[in-house]
């Protein structure tokens, strides 16, 4: 299962490197809790994503989790890879959090695919409590809506 989780997180990592989005074949169903990247998510976040996925599916839009829970070690690997890709720590940090700060490591963030699901969730996620957090990450969602269903203002990027 560790290998599966790593493949999923790698697929997600690739999404910020360019227009070649994570292949859907590498994405997990929000209902596949046997996959630790799904099953180790915060229960409230997982329930919200499952409810949203059900509602999106009813409109013909498939929703997958391209990256969910991550180990601290894997988050560090993503950051190290991004430093190589972007040439500096500060540039990399616009796309990748530290293991200490990442909501993926604490199980409180999900990256959602495909593109139509991202668009749908940006428009409809707040009624499930789900909010896009970063202006430069269309796919990253957290349980961040207030009780009235309002999402906080977008942060420019992960370094904000
Ligand atoms: Zn994310």
Bound molecules: zinc ion
What percentage of the residues does DSSP assign to strands (E)? 5-15%
State the total count of DSSP E strands.
4
Helical segment tally?
A: 6
Termini separation (Å)? 33 Å
Sheet with most strands = 4 strands, antiparallel
Shape: globular
- Percent helix, as a range, is 25-40%
Taking all residues together, what is the mean pLDDT? 88
Secondary-structure element order, N to C:
HHHEHHEHEE
Short description:
By secondary structure, this protein is α+β, with helices and mostly antiparallel strands.
Pick out its properties.
disordered N terminus, 160 residues, alpha+beta, binds zinc ion
Structure explained in plain terms:
The chain has 160 residues and is α+β, with helices and mostly antiparallel strands. 39% of the residues lie in helices and 9% in strands. It contains 6 helices and 4 strands, in the order H-H-H-E-H-H-E-H-E-E. Strands 1-2-4-3 form a 4-stranded antiparallel sheet. The radius of gyration is 14 Å and the shape is globular. The N and C termini lie far apart (33 Å). Bound molecules: zinc ion. Residues 104, 109, 111, 140 line the site of zinc ion (ZN).
How would you summarize the topology of this molecule?
Blueprint: H1 2-15, H2 36-39, H3 43-58, E1 64-67, H4 72-86, H5 89-92, E2 110-113, H6 115-124, E3 130-132, E4 140-143
Antiparallel strand pairs: 1-2, 2-4, 3-4
